[in-house]
Structure formats: C-alpha cells, structure tokens
Amino acid sequence: MATKDCFKGLIVGGLIGAALGILYAPKSGKETREDIARKADDLMAKAEEKYEAAVNRLKQFESSAKDKVAEMEGKVEELAERGKETIYDTKSRLKKAIDAGVGAFKEEKEKA
After folding, report:
1. φ and ψ at residue 25, rounded to 5 degrees
2. What is the pLDDT of residue 112?
3. Are 8 and 51 in contact (CB under 8 A)?
4. What are the sequence ranges of the domains in the chain?
5. What is the pTM of this model?
6. Torsion 53-58-61-63 (CA) sign
7. 55 and 7 in contact (C-beta within 8 Å)?
C-alpha cells in the first residue's frame, strides 16, 4: 500500500510541477509540447523503475515466504512424528503397567 501511495505522490507531484513550470515558462507552443512530452517520459520512466523495484521486492518476499513455509512444514511433520512416537510409547508403558497391576491383583486374590 505504501508503494501505491508513493506512485500516486510521484505522479501527482510531477504533474503539478510540470504544470507550474509550463505556465510560468515563456516558451513557444512547440517547445512547451516538447517539454511536456519529455517530462511525461521522465515521470513514466521513474514510475516504471519504482514499479519494477516493488515487483522485485514482492518476488523476494514471496520466495522467502515459500522457503519459510516449507521449513515450517518440515518442523510440523517432525513434531507430529515425535508426538505419535510419544503417544505410542506412553500407551505401551500404560498397557504394561495395567497388565502388571492386573497380574498383581490376580496373585493377591489367589493367595487369599
């Protein structure tokens, strides 16, 4: 959005400056038209430079964002796998503890 505002400011400021320069410059119509065309070309070139710079920054940002997303996906997959392993280990230990508790209960019941 700031780039858009910059373009607007550049164009509006350039047009105002060109208009004031033309109004106060004592030149012939042909010279004035040439000046207007030259200034319009200059403004267009500057706007194109700004546009290209903004596009390049956006492409770099997009590339960086894609890299970060891929990195985060890898981390999420790793954490999910660790979570699965932890759940499996905990489930296994809990089953062993329950089995041991049931076995101990049965032994105590048989003794009594």
Report:
1. -95, 125
2. 67
3. no
4. 2-111
5. 0.46
6. negative
7. no
